[in-house]
Design a protein that fits this description.
The complex is a heterodimer.
Chain A lengths: L1 E7 L7 E8 L2 E4 L2 E4 L4 H12 L7 E7 L5 H13 L7 E4 L6 H12 L6 E4 L1 H9 L8 E2 L3 H8 L20 H10 L6 E4 L4 E5 L2 E6 L13 H14 L4 H18 L8 H5 L2 H12 L1
Parallel strand pairs in A: 1-5, 1-6, 6-7, 7-8, 8-9
Antiparallel strand pairs in A: 2-3, 2-5, 3-4, 9-10, 10-11
Chain B lengths: L2 H14 L9 E5 L3 H13 L5 E3 L12 E5 L3 H10 L6 E5 L10 E5 L3 E6 L2 E6 L4 E7 L4 H9 L10 H4 L3 H19 L1
Antiparallel strand pairs in B: 1-3, 1-4, 2-3, 5-6, 6-7, 7-8
The chains are: A alpha/beta, B alpha+beta.
Chain lengths: 287, 188
């Protein structure tokens, strides 16, 4: 089972755990429709779009409404602490949650009880909390963009908002930032750094770089990082090792973007709609 | 040390030594969430106080924090003003060590018909001709998708401000990106 854990930008959305389906540009979770937009819905949209071509295990969403006050996130953290160890996921993705070190640590304890241990992917707010807790190495994959990589590289920063100025968030500094993040134990086993070039890295440094196809407008489109994380999760859930899934996911995300012929005003749902075709084209080429 | 015990020890220290510790002339206002920080900052700046939004000391960081640095000597007036404004802080404590400063670098990408500004981990993109916000990206806190939902499709002048709707550091970073975009558009 692939578990996706995150939030919905609607304060009235209750805590739900269950299967999720896609209906055109909406997700359906426990009978509730959620617009396929940026954030965790975009990540789930990418997973389900990939499932139109891949043979995926069941996908389960653990979701709650939160518009930034943190109340929803805290109720989901509490639910995870109690119930996560009773589930049997093979891949777990932690996504848009209010960063909270104490709650992160409680969830990590619950995660460590799982046998066999699932593949763990952290992105967005949960990744921030994982780094700040000093437990980054407990995870298999982080998926930062370049600004977030600078945050991982700054051993003193508790949030990307406080990354010190001398740690420049520029694409040409990526290898140095990666090295610094590992030097201070602030990176997961693998990093997939999202940007104009996507880099798969480990403690040894950059292992693979994906630059094509290159679509400049993608950086401005909210949710394209979320779809990439969703694609890695989906490919990993098929049994593919993280280090193979991450660069393939980067290629699929880029190709789906190119197929959508985007401008900076394009919305991510249009790119999600191209994922099955992009996946098919790239996997066929690998056969 | 947890937040409460840290604050208690600081307050005992503070009251034991009187209102001003030797070498201590700054204090921080601590709030439950970032939206209250933003409201208090706006109120204090409107009243002419020289205050700065900063990161909290390491002992009281919980994950998504912002505090207001204020002149300690004026804490009584500040406290009264904030109570009257309906945004009293949870606590005010003196500080001696350096505080974390927010990112103050902006990056701008010109796409021809569109313009994008990034502040910290948040990006805002507009259509130049109409100044309509077409995309908001980046960030990891749960108010980002909510703010994007409220702002995308509106012009820079008609959109609700992140400072009024946001609750987190990502929301605050988006406010900085929004202000920088406004500045660049007014200058052009």
């Amino acid at each position: 089972m692939l578990c996706v854990i995150g939030t919905i930008p609607d304060s009235a959305f209750p805590l739900v755990v269950g299967p999720v389906q896609m209906d055109r540009h909406r997700l359906i979770v426990s009978g509730r429709a959620v617009p396929l937009n940026r954030g965790t819905p975009a990540l789930l949209g990418a997973v389900l779009a990939a499932g139109a071509f891949l043979s995926l295990p069941p996908v389960e969403a653990w979701l709650v409404g939160d518009i930034g006050r943190g109340d929803g996130s805290r109720s989901l953290y509490a639910h995870l602490e109690t119930h996560l160890a009773k589930s049997s996921p093979t891949v777990v993705v932690f996504h848009y949650l209010q960063p909270d070190v104490d709650w992160h640590n409680r969830v990590l304890f619950a995660l460590e009880e799982l046998q066999p241990r699932p593949v763990t992917i952290a992105d967005a707010g949960f990744m921030y909390a994982a780094k700040m807790s000093g437990q980054a190495q407990s995870y298999d994959l982080f998926t930062p963009d370049v600004g977030e990589l600078a945050f991982l590289a700054d051993e003193n920063a508790p949030h990307p908002f406080y990354t010190r100025g001398f740690i420049l968030h520029q694409e040409e500094n990526v290898p140095r930032l990666i090295a610094r993040a590992y030097e201070h134990d602030n990176a997961a086993r693998w990093l997939l750094v999202k940007g104009r070039a996507d880099h798969l890295a480990g403690p040894e440094g950059v292992m693979e770089t994906v630059t094509a196809p290159s679509v400049a407008a993608m950086e401005a489109i909210g949710g394209t990082g979320d779809t990439l994380t969703g694609l890695v999760a989906a490919l990993t859930a098929t049994g593919m090792p993280v280090e193979k899934a991450a660069p393939l996911a980067a290629r699929v995300n880029r190709l789906a973007g190119q197929m959508a012929a985007p401008t900076p005003a394009t919305q991510v749902g249009e790119i999600i709609g191209k994922i099955p075709e992009a996946l098919e084209q790239l996997l066929r080429a690998h056969e | 040390m947890g937040l409460v015990s840290y604050l208690k020890s600081k307050f005992k220290e503070w009251t034991r030594h009187g209102e001003k510790l030797p070498g201590v002339d700054r204090g921080i206002l601590i709030y439950e969430n970032t939206s209250e920080v933003i409201r208090a900052e706006n109120r204090l700046k409107a009243a002419g106080y020289n205050v700065r939004v900063m990161g909290p000391p390491q002992q009281i960081q919980s994950g998504c924090d912002l505090v207001i640095e204020v002149p300690l000597m004026e804490h009584l007036e500040i406290s009264r003003l904030l109570h009257e404004a309906g945004v009293p802080p949870l606590k005010m404590v003196p500080v001696t060590g350096p505080l974390l400063a927010p990112v103050d670098l902006f990056q701008t990408v010109d796409y021809g018909e569109h313009l994008m500004v990034r502040a910290a981990n948040m990006k805002i993109c507009i259509e130049k001709a109409t100044q309509t916000i077409v995309n908001i990206s980046g960030g990891g806190c749960p108010d980002v998708p909510y703010l994007a939902f409220q702002m995308v499709g509106k012009t820079l002048h008609e959109t609700p401000r992140p400072r009024d709707m946001g609750h987190t550091l990502c929301g605050y970073a988006l406010e900085l990106a929004y202000k920088e975009m406004l500045r660049q558009c007014s200058a052009s």
